[in-house]
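Researcher: I'm comparing several assemblies side by side, and this is the next one on my list. It has 802 residues spread over two chains. Same procedure as the others: predict the full complex and return the structure.
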Amino acid sequence: MAVTPPHGPAPEASTDPQARIPQQQQRPAAEPSPPEPRAQLAGQPRVAYFVRLKLRILRNTLRPGRRPSGDRSRWFGRHSRLILFLLGALFGLWAAFVGFAAFAISSVAGPHLRPTVAAFAGAAIVLAWVFVPLLFFGVDETLDPARFALLPVPRRTLVLGMLAAAFVGVPPVVTLLATLGSVIGAATGGGLAAAVVAVLGAVVGLCVCVAASRAVTSAFARMLRSRRVRDLAALLIALMGISCNPVIQLIIALVGRGESPQATAIARVLSWTPLAAPYVAYVDAIDGRWALVAARLLVGVAGGAVLLWWWLQTIESAMIGSAAGPGAGRRSATGESPVRALFPRVVRFLRPNRFTGLIAREMRYWLRDPRRRATLISLLAMSVVIPFAFTLGVGGSRGAAQAHPSGHGALVYSLTIAGAFLGLVLVNQFGNDGTAYALHILAGVPGQVELAARALAVATLTFPVLTAATVAVAIIGGEAAQLPAALGVGLCTYGISVGAAGITSVVAAYPVPDSNNPFATNAGRGGLRSLLSFVSMLATWVLAAPVTIASALLPEDLTWVLLPVGLAWGLALAWVGTRLAGNLLQRRAPEVLAAVSPRRA
Amino acid sequence: MAVGLLRPDAGHAYVLGHDVWSDPVEAKRRLGALPDSARMFDRLSGAELLAYTGLLRGLPADVVDARAAELLDVLGLADAGRTLVVDYSAGMKKKIGLACAMLHAPRLLVLDEPFEAVDPVSGALIRDILIRYVRNGGTVIFSSHVMAVVERLCTHIAILADGQIKVVGTTEEVRGGRELEDVFVDVVGGRVATGAELSWL
C-alpha cells in the first residue's frame, strides 16, 4: 500500500493533504521558465523569468486561502495575507515618505554637514539591509537557490535572476523612494546634473544593498542549516542587534552635535567605502568635482560587483545544502543517570519529582530551543539595556540640577518595563511547546503545578541577570538609595506579568511554526501576537500602578518599604494569576493542545 | 479522544473501568500512548526525555533511573548518548516514544502507526517488545496501514474509515479467508484496478 500521510486524530487534519497539494502544483505551473541553458546565446533574456516567477508566487500567496471544510471560513482568515500585505505596503509607503523627507531635509542642510549626514545615512541603510533580515524578518526565501538545484540553470543566470527578483518587493521600492529624497537637495544645490547623479547614486546604492543582503544571507545559509551553528548565530545576531541600538544612538549623538571632528573623520572614511559612496556622490556633483563623482559611483558599482561575486561563490554551497555540516557531535555518553542528566547543574540540589522535573525541563528548553533562546536573550538584553539607557541617559544629559529626581524615577520606571517584558516570554508558553504538550496531558499534569513550574524556571534564569543589572545601574548612576524600591517594583511587575501571561497563555494560545529557524514567524499571527503581548503588558502596568505610584509619593527614606511590599504584591498576584490560569488549564487542556497544534493551511 | 487529547462530542472511553474524561488520573495511570502527530520534547536527549516523562508520571527518581537505563539499553538507544531527540532518525524517535509510553508500566498501550517509517531492524525490535508485553498481560491497540504487519501481529482488527468503525472482530472473522488488504479495500471502498488510465506509463 502506498504510504499515506500521517493522519492526526483531528477530523480537520484530514484536509491537510488537499490543502497542501495545490501549493505544490502552483510552483510547476509558474516554473516552466528556466529552459535549456544552451538554447540561447546569453543568460540575459532568461533573467526575466525569475522576476516573473517571483511576481507569480507573490500573487499566489496573496490569493484568498482555500475555504477549509470546517467552520473556519471567516472572511478575515481567508484574506488575512492580502490584508497583511496591504498593511505592509502602507507601512512601507509611510516609511518611504519619512525616509524621503529625511533624505531631502538632510540634502538641503548646510554644505559642511551634508557629506557627513549623507555618509552616515547611506551606511546605515546598507547595514540595515544586511542585518535586519537576519535579525527580525528572516530571509525572503521565496526564491531559495536550493530549489533550482535540479534545473539546468547556469550559475551566472541564476545569480542575476535572483538579484533581479530580489528587487521585486516592498523593501527595495521603499529604499529606492527614500534615498531618492536626496534628489531634491541635489537639484536645488547643483541643478539637473547633480540630480541625475543623485538618482544614479540611489540606484547604485540600492544594488549594493540588495547584493549585500543576498550575499550575506547566502553565506550564512550554509552555516545556518546546521542546528548548533544556527543556535550560535542566533545568539550572536541577537547580541549584535542589541548592540546596534546604542551604536546608532551614539552616531545620532555624534551627528547631532554637528561638526564633531570624529564624526566627520568617520564619515570621510565611510564615503569611500561601497557602504556610503553612492549616496555621497551627489554632494561632489553639487561642488562640481566630477572626477570624484565618477570615482564614488565606481566604488559603489565595484562593491556591488564584489558582493555579487561572493554571492556566486556561496550560492553553490547553498544549493548543495549541507548534509555533513558541523553539529552532529554530543555523542559523548556520560555516566550520569538519566534523572541527573535532566537537571541543569544549578538546580541539581532539588529533589527530583514532578514539579522540579518540570522546572528542569523548562530551563533546558529555554537554553536549548533556538526560538526560545532568541526570545529570552533579546528580552533579557532589553530589560538590561532599558534601565541602563533610561537611568544613565536621562540622568547624564539633563545635568546635575535635575539629575536626582529624574534619575530616581527613571530607574524605578525602567524596571516596571523590564519586569513586564520578562513576563512576556510566557505569553505563549504552550505555543512554544507545540504538540509536545500532549505529553503533559497524557501524564495528567495538574494545571497549577505546570504553570508555577514554568514561571519559576524563567525566574531562575532571569532574576540573577536582572538583579545584577539593576544593582550595577544603581551603583553606576549613584542611585544606591533607590535600589530597594527599584528591585521591589521590578519584582512586583514581574510577578504580575507572570500571572497575566499565565492567563493569556491558557486563554489565547496560538501555534508557532514548527521550524528550526528562530527568525521564522507565522504569517498573519504577528498582529495577534503583539496584541496579546500588549494587552497583558497593559494589565500588568495597571495592576502594578499602586506600587509604582507609591514609589513616587513616598518620602526618600521610606522607599525601602517597597521591596517587601512590591515582592508581596507581585507574589500574590502571580499566585492568583497562576491559580486562575491553572484551574482554567485543568479544564481546557485539550483545547489548548488543539490551539497550539500547527494547522497546515 | 480515547487517551484524553481530543475532547469527544459524545460517548465515553474507559481504560480498565476508569473513564478517561471523568476520572483522568486513574485512567491515565493505566494507559501509555504514542501519538504519531504529536512532537516530543525533542530538545532533550533520550535519557533526559525518559527521566522527564518518568518524573511527570510521578514515579520516584530511583525507579525512573533504573527503568530508563534498562529501556535505553533494550531499545539500543544507550549509545546515542547525549544526542538530542531532534537529531534522532525516524526509527529512533519511534523507539524513544515507545519507551516513554511504557515507562510507567501501563496495562494498555495505544500506539499510532508504530511501524511507519521504521527500518526493519527497529521494526522487528518493536514487534518483539510488544509481543513480550502482551505475553505479560498487557494490551496493545495500534493503528497501521501495513496490512502484513496487522495480519501477523493482531488478534483483533477494527477497520476505521471516515471516523466510523466499519468492521470489527477477531483477525479470522474479519479476514474471512481472504487477504486482509482486499478486505480493507472492499470495506473502505477504494478501487484496486487501474485499467487503461495510465497507459502512457
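Model: For your comparison table: Chain B touches chain A through 59 residues (CB under 8 Å).
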